[in-house]
Amino acid sequence: MAIYHLQIKPVARSAGRTATAAAAYRAGERIRDERTGALYNHSRREDVLHKEIFLPARLDRADVGMEWARDRSQLWNAAEKAEPRSDSRVAREYQVALPPELSAEQRLALARAFSLELADRYNVAVDLAVHAPRPDGDPRNFHAHLLATTREITPDGMGPKTGLDMTGEVRSELGLPPSRQEFRTLRARWAELTNEALRAANIEARVDHRSLEAQGVDRVPLPHVPRYAIAAERRGERSELAERIREGHRQRVAAAQREREAKHADAAAGTPAPSGSNAAKPEPHRDPAPSQDMDSRRRQAVQDWLKYRANPEQANRGHRSETSQPLSMDEIRRRAVAAWRSLRARGAESQRSTESGRERGVGRDRDESERARDPPGVGDDFSG
């Protein structure tokens, strides 16, 4: 089935990346960076199915003088030279999955349509490279890399920053929506283009850029297993990372199933089901501050002892009745020890009750946290 995948990320110097290296790798070409003198040679790549540079429609004419921008080496060296800062974003990449249900010509037409829209939308140059699936990867993984300039393209060279690379202040002054909204718009547009291509090809499959929750689909998203882990397993090697990812997915599926069953049971009983970690949890039973009561009794016993030693007759007045005899020192000690032992027994019983309630609460908390945990993202590895 067709899957949705659109990843947008910058090519930034702060991460040690260059536009010349990114373009050479994706297009499978040999490019020398005139700024640093580094040579990037990927001309031996055999999985590049198509490569093409797109310019805005208003500049894509022979009389405008844009030949330099159609040359991959000149284009990306110009992009590098236009950025003076050491942390500049020198390019922006859009990675997309091309539906395997489409033919090679239909996949190419889809990638070209998106490239043209980006070029016209932001007035940039877009360098398209369509890649075949890796030999050791998923055979359905047809994908494309769209490398776009972060500055407007002009007959005289690079212009001002544009698109997602404009600052928030500039976007606000121009009346443009925030970058976050722009990301959502691009994601929705890629889904529309993909579904239009599938519909034109009479294919029933469709893609959706929204999350499963937003679609109303009650299912835990499939886990993302890195390509190198899958490749290791296909070589017959064991990947502990892949095993941990799949085990975590199984636990999330089981937790979601338990939550569904609990909701059905509560619905049948006519009681509302708790929702995730926000559900109210009953407080375990606690006796009123046994440690504080114990301390007060200990202090009282000591005071009685000291008072008796200072004045036995005066101390006994508080403990005698009309028919009782004065309390001896041994009696005061005996009563204090008995009270202390009784209080210790009550404290131990209260502690056991508290711990039992806490264990029951922890069990509930663990179940709720499993249900409330956000699932991982959906998608395959489209690098390469």
Protein described:
The chain is 47% helix and 13% strand. It is an alpha+beta fold and 384 residues long. Mean pLDDT is 81; it is low at 276-292, 318-324 and 354-383.
CATH architecture of the largest domain: 2-Layer Sandwich
Strand content: 5-15%
Overall mean pLDDT = 81
Count of distinct strands: 9
Tally of helical segments: 12
Distance between the amino and carboxyl termini = 22 Å
Number of domains: 2
CATH class of the largest domain, please? Alpha Beta
Provide the CATH topology of the largest domain: BirA Bifunctional Protein, domain 2
Radius of gyration: 36 Å
Structural class comes to alpha+beta
Topology order in helix (H) and strand (E) letters: EHEEEHHEHEEEEHHHHHHHH
Record the strand order, biggest sheet.
Answer: 1-5-7-6-4
Fraction of residues in helices?
40-55%
Inertia-based shape: elongated
Biggest beta-sheet profile: 5 strands, antiparallel
Ranges where pLDDT stays below 50 over 5 or more residues in a row are: 276-292, 318-324, 354-383
